[in-house]
Amino acid sequence: MNYNLDHLRELESEAIYVLRETAAQFERPSLLFSGGKDSIVITHLARKAFYPAKFPFPLVHIDTGHNFPEAIAFRDALVKKLGATLIVGSVQESIDKGDVQEETGKNASRNALQTVTLLDTIESNKFDACLGGARRDEEKARAKERFFSHRDDFGQWDPKNQRPELWNMFNGKHNQGEHFRVFPISNWTEMDIWQYILMENIEIPSLYFAHNRNVVLRDNTFLPESEFLVLRENEEVVNKQIRFRTLGDITITGGLESGADTLAKIVEEVSVARQTERGNRADDKRGEAAMEDRKTQGYF
Amino acid sequence: MDHIDNTSDLLRFTTAGSVDDGKSTLIGRLLYDSKTIFEDQLEMVQQASSRKGLDHVDLSLLTDGLRSEREQGITIDVAYRYFATPKRKFIIADTPGHIQYTRNMVTGASTANLALILIDARKGVIEQTSRHSFIASLLRIPHLIVCVNKMDLVDYDQATYDKIVADYKAFASKLDVQDIQFVPISALHGDNVVNRSEKMDWYQGSTLLNSLETVHIASDHNHIDCRMPVQYVIRPHSDEFHDYRGYAGRIAGGVFKPGDDVVVLPSGFQSKIKSIDTFDGEVAEAFAPMSVSITLEDDIDVSRGDMIARPNNQPAVCQEVELMMCWLDNKSLNPTGKYILRHTSNEVRAKVKEVRYKVDVNTLHRNEEDLEIKMNDIARVKLRLAKPIFTDSYSKNRITGSVILIDEATNNTVASGMII
C-alpha cells in the first residue's frame, strides 16, 4: 500500500490544519476576502475544514470603491450561497471621515489607503486573527512571512523580530489589542492555486477568463477602461481579448492578451508564463521594497 | 516552468550556508536552470547586478529578501522558495549558516525531508560543515546530500573531491544519518546542478536535481503507530447534523480505519471509529499528513489537546520529559522560571528540573560546566510538567516527539525540543 499524498492534497491538508488551528486559538477570527482567486480558494478550504459545520468566522472585505463590478457581484453571490456573514470596511468612508487623504498625481490609487480602513475594521470588530491569501512565492518580503504572523497594537509587522515557527506548531498568543495575520496557503504557488481550482472545479469571477474589453495600453499592461481611468496624451482605448491574472482595484490591475477561456487553458497558460503574476500590478512597481514597506505598516 | 500534473509529490528541503560558500548562487542556479525564474525577476536581478558593478548576473540576488538583508548582503531569516519539475514539487527552506543563526537553521530543518550540505572544495570539511550536519541529524532529517561546491576553483580535480568525501564519511560516522549522497558541483557554472558537467567525466553519479527528484520520501512519515492529536471539535448544531461530533485533526502517525478500536488520552476511554469524514465524503483510511474528522461510536468526552491512539499501541504518558533543546530567544533560559510547553495541540506549564549538558555544535563536545542556556545553544534538559502529556520519542515520530516552549510574559516562542 502506498501511503502518499500528491502535492495538492498535502498542501490542502496543511491549509485545513492552519484554518482549524486559527479557529481553536483565537476568539474572534475573520477571513479577509478580496474576491480574488486566492481568497476564494481559502474560503473553499474553510468550508472543507469545518464540514459539516459552517466555518466559524465572517468574511471581511475592504472595499476601495474602485472595484470591478463583476468582483462585487461574485462576492455577494458567494456569501449568499454559503450563508456566510460579510463585513465590509469602506475606504470611501475613511476618506469622508478625514482619516485618510486621497492620493493625487500620476499613479494615484487607493491601494495604500486600504491599510487604514483595514486596521480600523480590525479594531472596531475586535478581530484577533485575520486569515489572508498571501503566498510566499508572490514577492520576496512575503517569502519570510510566517503562517501565524504577529501584528502589534498599531497593526505593524516587524520582519526582523518574528517568532520562530517550527514543525507544525503555531504560537498565536498575544496581548490585548494585538492581532495575527494567518496565511494558510503560504506554501502554495500560483500554479498550485490554478491546478487546485481546476481539480476542485471552484467557481471564480469571469474576469479571470479571456473576454473582450475596452482597455488602454500603459506600462506594458492593458488597464481596463473605467470611470476612474483618465487617458493620458497619446493613449487610446482599444478593444482586446484579455484576461486578468490577479484581481485588485480596477485602477491598478492590468490584463494580458489571452485566449484562455477555460480553467484547463488557464493552467496551460500559467505553466508557460514568463512574467510573474504581480508584474501586471502597478502597486508593486513602486520600488524594490514596495511590498515590504506596505506590509510593515499593516497592509495585507 | 513546465506543466506538471497533479500526481507529483512534495519534497521539502533545507539549505544552510554562510556568506561565501555559494548557497544563494546554488539556489539561484536551481531556480534558473529549472526555468522557475520569471523574466521580470531576472530583469530586476540583472539591473541590481550592474548597479553593483558586476559583469555577470549575480544569481544570489534572487534570494535576498528583506531590505536589511540586502544592505548587509546576508540572509538573516528563513526564506521559503518554490520550484517544480515535471517529477516533483519542491519547497526550499533557505537558512543562514552562521553560528549566530543556529535557531534559524533548526527552524528550517524542522519540516525538511532532506538537507543540502555545502562544502567549499578549496576548504574541505570545516567547522561549519559539522555544525550543519549535526543540526540535520539532531532534527532527524532523513536524507542528506553533500554538495562539494566550487569544483571549478580546484580544476575539477577528482582527488580533491575523493578526499573531502572520505573526510566527511569519517566525521558522519559520529552522527545518526541513514542516507547520505555526495555530488561534485559548480553552482556558479552549473556543473552537475541541473545539467551534467562536461568537465568531470570521472563522476558517474546523479546530478543534484536528479537526486532531489528521485530520493524516496514516501516512507518519511510514520505509518505504524496510530496517533491523532485532537485539534478542534466540530459540532454543527444544524437540523441535518444535530448530534454530530467530529474530532478534527491532522493524522500524526499510523493508519486509521473505520471500525478500529481506539483509546482517547488522557481519559483512557475506549471506543470504535464510526467514520472518518472529509468534505469530499467518508474515507476508508486516513494516514499522515491527512486532515480529517473522526466520529466515534460512543459519546465520550473528547476535546482539543486529547490524543487518539490504538489501545494496543499507545504513546508514553509522562509528567517529566527529557529533551534535546534549542534555545531560540534573546533572553536566556531562566532555570527557575515557568514556561508554557506546547506539544501537538496540548498545552501544559513546565519548569526545568535539570540541565544535563550543552553541546558545542562545532565540535559535538558536551559541556557540563557552563550550563547557562543562551540563544542558539543546544542542550539536554529535563522538564517537569504540571500535567502529563502523551509522547513518542522524536526519533519515532517528529510530530508527537516535538515540543516548543513559550514565555508567559512575552508570548514569544523561546525554545524547541526533541523528546528523547
Radius of gyration of chain A: 19 Å
CATH class of the largest domain in chain B: Alpha Beta
Helix percentage of chain B: 10-25%
CATH topology of the largest domain in chain B: Rossmann fold
Number of helices of chain A: 8
User: Mean pLDDT across all residues of chain B, rounded?
Assistant: 90
Q: Which second-level CATH architecture of the largest domain in chain B applies? A: 3-Layer(aba) Sandwich
Q: Spans of chain B of 5+ residues with little confidence (pLDDT < 50)?
A: 1-5
Helix/strand-derived class of chain B? alpha+beta
Please provide a written account of the structure.
The complex is a heterodimer of chains A (about 300) and B (about 425). The model of chain A has no long low-confidence stretch (mean pLDDT about 90). In chain A, the strands form two sheets. In chain A, strands 3-2-1-4-6-5 form a six-stranded mixed sheet, sandwiched between helices. A four-stranded antiparallel sheet of chain A has the order 8-7-9-10, with no helix packed on it. Helix content of chain A is about 30%, strand content about 15%. Chain A folds into two domains: about 5-190 and about 290-295, Rossmann fold; about 205-280, no CATH class. Chain A is globular. Chain A has helices at about 5-25, 35-50, 70-80, 90-95, 115-125, 190-200, 265-270, 290-295, and strands at about 30, 60-65, 85-90, 130, 150, 180, 210-220, 220-225, 235-245, 255. Chain A is an alpha/beta fold and about 300 residues long. Chain B has about 425 residues and is α+β, with helices and mostly antiparallel strands. Chain B folds into three domains: about 10-220, Rossmann fold; about 225-310, Beta Barrel (Elongation Factor Tu (Ef-tu), domain 3); about 315-420, Beta Barrel (Elongation Factor Tu (Ef-tu), domain 3). In chain B, strands 7, 8, 9, 11, 12, 13, 15 and 16 form an eight-stranded antiparallel sheet that branches. In chain B, strands 2-3-1-4-5-6 form a six-stranded mixed sheet, sandwiched between helices. In chain B, strands 17-21-19-18-22-23 form a six-stranded antiparallel barrel. The model of chain B is unreliable at about 1-5 (pLDDT under 50).
